[in-house]
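Exam prep: given the inputs below (a chain plus pyridoxal-5'-phosphate), describe the expected output before reading on.
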Amino acid sequence: MIRLADARVPEHAVEAVAAVLRSGQLLAAQECSEFEKELAALLGCGYVVTTSSGTAALHLALLGLDIGPGDAVLVPDFTFPATANAVVATGAVPVVVDVDPGSFTMSATDLERVITSWSGPARLSTVMPVQEFGRCAEMEEILSVADRHGLRVVEDAACALGSSIHGRPAGTWGQAGCFSFHPRKSLTTGEGGAISTDDGAYADRLRRLRNHGMERIDGQLVFTEVGLNYRLTDFQAALGRAQLPALGTMVERRRAVAEAYSAGLRGLLGRGVAQLPEDHPGHTWQTYMVVLEEGVDRARVIEAMRGAGVEANVGAQSLTAIGLYGPTSAEVGPVLDRCGLALPCHHGITNDETRTVVLSLYEALSR
Ligand SMILES: *Cc1c(COP(=O)(O)O)cnc(C)c1O
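Solution:
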């Protein structure tokens, strides 16, 4: 079976994890703090704070900004629901903004529309664009809308480690960037996440909130605020560190897989496929999602591809379609939710396998 994702890690990474396990110090924080420094260097940002998951990163980033009951956070309709769940977990309400049909990311035009027509009662405080599938949103436009309305920006860059737009890395555009190291992402620690920021006081607060609100003051442990346990373990950090130098190579391979798909699938446009994903220089292709034509039975396509040894699946979710996040007027997101088809995309896929995937979709759609 050609899998959607394959998180096999190299032997030296297994060894790095084993070394931490053998040391008996699973939470010594040494590996975590090295991993944080290396990620900060990669992103070119001041500080990185690792977390136990991408969802924890999102929740913590919002808590660190004192977002809670009475606040509203603008999120794109088409995403993984964790984006909105993290907002709800703080006590704030998510406010849904539609996505751009070409990039699948938050539409700056709809953002402006939703902000100007907002009537409360919650106070709009933060915009949380998602760098969906490793493709960055039009961050310059989103930042300019946010600035104009006095809103902060927190990026959900969960699937976008190594991505960039206009040469600037995902995770460095707003107050904070949140990453995930889930096995479906470009670099994995099993579960894991991180927050990037240039604000030192904010990073200190995130570290405190990540560790039960605890601080060491004059050698004494003091609980200075209400916190959580969102720490990453050292063996997870070791796993991440061991793969980090190969991130660029892994992303290049994903890019080649995406290019092969786009070249091979062009003939299906108008014949079951409505749209291929837009290429973009800073795209890291966490997911390669085509949009099927309305009326194509996606479940049957997925089943037929499975029969040919290819794992395909839905792309991402529409918050509107899920229906748990209040009233929304998004129209593009629900279509992508209904018609999106994600193809296997990871650095372990061979050229032969890309051809098998392409052929299996041709065959599935010709039935
Ligand atoms: C993967 C993902 C998350 C959640 O990350 P976890 O590490 O699984 O908690 C959040 N947002 C987006 C856009 C994601 O793709």
